[in-house]
Amino acid sequence: MRQRHIEILTMLLLMLLPGPTALAQAVPADSVVRDATIDAQFDTTRDGGYWKRALMHGKLNLRDTTVRYPGFVSFGVKCYRWFDRYLNTYDTTYIVGTKTKWKFTVKNSNWMDSYSGRLTSKRVPVMINSNITSFFGVHGSYEGLGLGYTINLNDLLSGHKIKNIRWEFNFSTSRVVFEGYYSKDKNESNLHHLGDFRSTFKSQKFKGLSREYWGGYGYYIFNHMRYIQSAAYSFSRFQIRSAGSFIAGLHTSHQDFTIDFSELDDEMRKNLPDDRLVYRFRYRDYSFLLGYGYNWVCRPRWLFNITALAGVGYRHSFPSSVEGRRDLLSISYRVKSGLVINRKKFFYGFQAILDGHIYHTSQYRFFNAIFNLNVITGIRF
Fold it and tell me: Which range has the worst mean pLDDT, 48-62, 114-128, 236-250, 333-347?
C-alpha cells in the first residue's frame, strides 16, 4: 500500500516536470550503461530505479521509451505522451515553442459592464452601466495550465471594502482551449435612461445594480497545425507566419443581476412601468459556438489577433428570476483582439474583449455586455 502511494505521488510530480530533454540513446533495459559526461552523483544505470534518480536530478525525459516505470507511473507517462502527441503538435514553419515552461505575468484590466433594454410589456427603456474600474492581477502558469487572481484597484487604493473580485482560469494547447471566469460586483453604477428620463452628458449615480456571473468556454481549433490562439492571449507559443482558423466550441454561463430602484426619488420612480421596484434576472446558458480567428504577423516579434464567435443554445431561467422558471433561447457572442510584442524572455500584450448576452421575451428585453481592456507584461523562464 505504501509503495502504491509513492507511485501515485510520483506520477503527480511528473506533471510538473520541465520539458523533455533530447531523446536518450536506445539501450537494452537489463544492460548497465554509464555516461561519463554526467555528474558522478547521478547514477545512469538503466535499472528499475533509473527514473527516480533522473527525476531527482531533473534529467528525466518522458519521451524516452527505454526508461522502465512501475505500473501506475507507466500509465501516467503513457497518458502524457498521448496528450503531447495528439494535442500539442503543429507545423513549425508557422508556429514555434518558447522553449520555456514557466510564465509569470502582471496584468492591468480596465472593466465596464452595461445593461440596456426594456421593462415589461409597456417597453419602458432602461440603460445602466458601471463605472470604468481598474483591476490589478497576477497570473502564473506551467505549460498550458494557469491560474490568476484579480482585485479592484479603485477600492483597494481608496481604502474602501473590496466589492469586486474576479477569478480566471485557462488551459490551452494547439488543438483545444479552455477558459473559466467568476466575477462579483456591487459597485456604484450610472443610470443613463429610464422611461422619459434620458441623460446625454450627465448620468445619475445609481447604487441599485448588483451582478454576479461565472462561466466557461471550450474551443476546438480546426487549423491547429498553422494557427494557435495562445500566441496572442496566453503567450505560450510564437506565431511566425500569418494564419487563421475556424473555431467551434461550447460555452456555459450563469448570469445573475439585480436592478433595485427602491433608492430612487419619487420623481424618478414615475418613470417605472408599475409598482415593482426590484427586477432580478437569473439564468444559465448552454451554447454552441462558431467563429473564426486570425493571427497576423505584422512584423518580426509582433503579432495581432482578431477572433469573433457567435453562440446559440438553451437558456434556463430560475424561479427567483423576475419571470420565474422558463426555457428560452440563448444568444451570445464574443469578440476579442490582441497585440503582442516579444522581446527575448519578456513580452508585452494589449487585449480588448467584448462578451455579450441577449435576453429576449414578450415582457423583457435586455442586452448586457462586458467590456475588458488588458495591458499585460510578463516573463518566460
Answer: 48-62
Shared-domain flag, residues 236 and 128 = yes
For all residues of the chain together, what is the average pLDDT? 82
Shared domain for 372 and 256, answered yes or no, is: yes
Q: Could you tell me how far CA 276 lies from the centroid of its own chain?
A: 37
Burial status of residue 277 (CB atoms within 10 A of its CB: 0-12, 13-18, 19 or more): middle
Pair 73, 14: CB distance under 8 Å: yes
Predicted local distance difference test score (pLDDT) of residue 162:
55
The secondary structure of the chain in percent helix, strand, coil, rounded to multiples of 5, reads 15, 50, 35
Q: What is the pTM of this model?
A: 0.76
- Residue that wins the pLDDT comparison between 84 and 374: 374
Question: How many domains, the chain?
Answer: 2
pLDDT of res. 263: 87
Q: Looking at 63, 87, 111, which one is the last position of a domain?
A: 87
User: What's the CA gap between 16 and 102, in Å, rounded?
Assistant: 10
Residue type, 248: A
| 346: its cell numbers | 519578456
Q: Are residues 300 and 154 in the same domain?
A: yes
The three cell numbers of residue 262 are 427602491
**pLDDT interval class at 160 (50, 70, 90):** low
Claim to verify: residue 9 and residue 133 sit in the same structural domain: no
Q: Which of 129-143, 172-186, 273-287, 322-336 has the lowest mean pLDDT?
A: 129-143
Sequence-distant (≥ 6) Cβ neighbours of residue 342 within 8 angstroms = 238, 301, 302, 303
C-beta separation of 288 from 224 below 8 A? no
Q: How many CA atoms lie within 13 A of 16 on its CB side?
A: 6
Domain boundary among 87, 117, 140: 87
Cβ-contact 153, 135 below 8 angstroms: yes
Range of the domain at 13: 2-87
Nearest to 245 by CA among 262, 224, 231: 224
Whether residues 180 and 71 fall in one domain? no
- Cell (9 digits) for 108: 492591468
Beta bridge partners of 149: 138, 167
Which range among 115-129, 191-205, 300-314 shows the weakest confidence by mean pLDDT?
191-205
Q: State yes or no: pLDDT of 282 exceeds 90.
A: yes
227 by DSSP, 3-state: which?
A: coil
Give the angle 316-323-268 at the CA atoms, nearest 5°. 130
